[in-house]
Write a structure and sequence with these properties.
This protein has 454 residues and is of the alpha+beta class. It is built from twelve helices and seven strands. The chain has three domains: 203 residues, no CATH class; 63 residues, Helix Hairpins, CATH 1.10.287.130; 148 residues, Heat Shock Protein 90. The strands form two sheets. A five-stranded mixed β-sheet has the order 2-4-5-7-6. The structure holds adenosine-5'-diphosphate (ADP). Adenosine-5'-diphosphate binds next to helix 11 and helix 12. The site of adenosine-5'-diphosphate has 21 residues, from helix 11 and helix 12.
Amino acid sequence: MKRHLTRHALGWPRRVISAEWQGPADLPQSLTMEWRLVFVRWVGVLAVAPALPLMHLPNNRLIASVAILVFAIAYNWSVRRYIQRRPDVFANGYLTTVCDSFLNMAMVLVGGGFDSAFSYVLFTVMISVAMRYGYGPSLAMTMIFTGTDAIEHVIGHQSADAAFAFRTGFLFITALLASYLRSLTVKAEVALHDRLIELQRLYSDLAVAHQELLSLDEAKTNFLANVSHELRTPLTSIRAFSEILQSYPDDEETQQEFLQIITAESERLTRLVNDVLDVTKIESGEMDWRDEAVDPSALLDQCARTFAPLFEHSTLEFEQDVAANLPEIRGDHDRIQQVIHNLLNNAMKFTSEGTIRLHAGVQGDELWIEVSDTGVGIAAQDQERVFEKFQQVGDTLTGKPKGTGLGLTICRDIVAHHGGRLMLDSQPGRGSRFSIVLPVPPAVTEPIALPAAA
Ligand code: ADP
C-alpha cells in the first residue's frame, strides 16, 4: 500500500519531467536540442538558487546574483514560450549560445570571479556549445572565457596561478573532447541516414520483385489451369467416342464417323501440346534457335505453295504479292515459317468470303511481311488481348475449327526473338492485317517498295 502511494506520489513529477525533456509531439527535429537545453537551464537555476545563500556572498554580490538568476528564469521561460512559434530564430542555436555565454559569465563574475565555485558553470556551457556546434565555436568560446579570466587577473593585479592554468587547460581539453564526441555522433548519424536511404531503396526493390513474383505465380497458375482445361476437352471427347465405339461394333458408318472425330480431337491435342511446349520453351529461354541466312522470298513462296491448294475448293481467294529479290535476313527459317503459317491459318479460320493476301516488301532497313484478310476482324479493345495466352475473342468462333489460343503468343515471341515486332491493324466486319516487321542487316538493304496495303 505504502509502495503504491509512493509510486502514485512520484507519478506526476515524473510525468512533468518527462514531458519537459521530451517536448511536444509535434516538435521539429531541428529544435530538439534547444528544447532540452531549456530543461537543462531549469536544472541549473534549481541548483544555483538554493546554493546562493550558502555561499556567504557580500550583499551587493548576492543581490546581483539573484538579479541574474531572475533574468535567467525570464530568459528561459521566453525561450520555452517562443521556441515553437519562431523556429527560424532558435533552430540554429546562435541566439541562445550568445545569451547563455553572457549569462554564465555574468554569474561567474558576480558570484566571485573565475576563481570561485561558479567557474564550473563554464564547463557546462562549454560542453553544450561543443555538442551543438563542434570544434570552432567551442574553442572560440573557450578563448573568450579564458581571455575574460585573464583580464580579471590583470584588473585584480594578480599573477596567473595554478588554478588559472588548470581551469584554462581543462576548458580546452573539455572543448576538444566534447567536440570530438560530437563529430563521432554526426558521422554516425550521416552513416545511419545513408543506410536508411539504402534500406528504403532495397525495400522498394524488394516490394517490386515481390509483386513481380506474385504476378508470375498467378500467371503460372492461370497457365496451368488453362492448359488442364484445354487438355480435358479433347481428351473427354476421345474417351467418350472410344467408349461409344465399343457399343457400335457392327455399324461401319458410325464407326467411321466416330473415328474421324477421335482423329480430329487427337490432332487438336497434339497441336495443343506442341503449342504449350513452344510457349514454355520460348519463355523459359530453352528454345533451340537456329541462326542462319534466310531468303524471305523463297520462304514466303514455300508458304504460298503450301496454302494455295487449300483455296482451290473454297470461295476465298488467295493473293500473293511478294517481291522476288527481298534481302536476306538472319534467323530461324522454320520458326519464321511457323509464324506465317499461323497467320495464314487464322486468316482462313476467321474469313468466310473475300480475299486473303500475303504481301512482302522492304521499308528503310526493315522487312515487312503482311497477312491480311477480309474476315470478321477484331474489335479495338481486343487487339492487344489476342496476343495473350489462351485469349480467343469475339463470338464468331461458333462453327469455326477451334484453336489453342496460343498461336499469336508464340508468333509474337518468335518475331521478338528476331528483334522484330508483330503488329495488328483490324476493323470488325472488314478484316484484319497482321504485319511482321523484321530488321534487315545493313549490308544487304535494298530499296524495294512495299506493295499497296489491303
Ligand atoms: P487460336 O489458336 O485460337 O487461333 P491465336 O492466338 O492464333 O489462337 O488467336 C487468338 C484469337 O485471336 C483467335 O481465337 C481469334 O479470336 C483472334 N484472331 C486471330 N487471328 C484472327 C483473324 N485473322 N481474324 C479475326 N480474329 C482473329
